[in-house]
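Q: Hi! First time asking for a complex rather than a single chain. Here are the components, and I think there are two in total. Is that enough to go on?
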Amino acid sequence: MDQPIIRIQNLRKSFGTLTVIDGLNFDVMKGEKLALIGPSGSGKTTILRILMTLEDISGGRIEVCGEPLYHMQRNGAEVPADEAHLHRMRRHIGMVFQHFNLFPHKSVLQNITLAPMLTKGEARAAADRRARDLLDMVGLADKADYMPSQLSGGQKQRVAIARALALQPQIMLFDEVTSALDPELVEEVLEVMKRLAAETDMTMLLVTHEMGFARDFADRVLFFDKGRIVEQGPPAQLFTAPQEDRTKSFLRKIIAAGQRV
Amino acid sequence: MGDWAGYLTLILMGAWVTVKLTLMGSALALVVAFIAGLGRISRHAWVRWLATAYIEFFRGTSIFVQLFWIYFVLPMTGAELTPMQAGVMALGLNVGAYGAEVVRGAILAVPRDQHEACVAVNLTRFQRMRHVILPQALPLMLPTFGNNAIELLKATSVVSLISLSDMTFQAQVVRSQTGSTLMPFVTILLLYFAMSSALSFGMRRLERRVTRGLDGVR
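A: Yes, that's all I need. Here is the structure of the assembled complex.
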């Protein structure tokens, strides 16, 4: 855990005149489980989207696995990354979305095997075998031949997790993965993630509104507001003895809304 | 009455020309529609410009004029075409311009989520289109493609103007030889209707096939 796997330096992101992230700095260590919390619009999801290269950056610098994400070397100078560089960097990173984003025209098994076969040239038999192992791990071994439209939200999200894992990324990003689920389906997804966190040394970044889960899951919690980190620390400290007023008032509201922190 | 058999054969020969024009014209239109439709959403401005120019030009001028240009004016530049080739080209390019907008619209109708999921599993641009976006866009295109094919079938009658003996042309021949308008034109009315019904039926079957498993999605 000595070398940071993600380095974010002076990151800026604006949409038109609206600045969402303003001079952000933080490192993530290899294997670290990080929870990003904070009010809506604080820029947490944007950070994950930037790491997945779904958004461009407006300024600053990001390194992933020791290499710049949005920059590359050309003729000895550092220039903005091209699509080929981004494609190469994306191998390190996987993402699970709030709305699952499964491919509706592919079966559960095909959803998982498509990318390994296309991007890594895996043979169908090998890809199938690993997809079935992953489905087994997320508790959906019997659903391999279903279409996504036949699954519940919680099942869809577990397939989406398996799909991301199939590419064996070093870094996994979870973007409010339980926010679109009915309350009684949340637990089955969190269960899978807890097991994942315990059993693998993957680096995980989690944006969530489930404070109780963030507390159990994370090694470190970052509290965001207005595109900046207001406070960070181990969950026990941040949730029980927050230092900043902004953090305190946020947690008070969360508790008032009936959540365990 | 025996003469009618001969005249009917004449019309049926014309019907075969119409069928060939429709099938080949539709095939060309399909290819052109995909090329121009994908061109319209290209990352490169010059490709978008080229596709837009083609679409606007062929939608904005009459197929009759286009046919005359292809058959009578193009040969002056050295590109000699048979009437059949000229007919297929005019029909294909004209209907393809409409089809291109259908292709573009259907591709843009696939939710952004799907593009993002493709990025997250690191598919290349080509793989995204080929394996995720187009398979979902195709079911959206088919109903309008069916319309376009029927439009194309009916537009085939303009080729009689460059002396290609299609069904309408043959009906005119029969009419001038027999003096009867009713018989040839009832015949081709029914034949056109039968052909367009066959097209509709085929497209509906195709639609059912490509949307299989997508029920509940849209």
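A: The mean pLDDT of chain A is 93. Let me know if you'd like any chain examined more closely.
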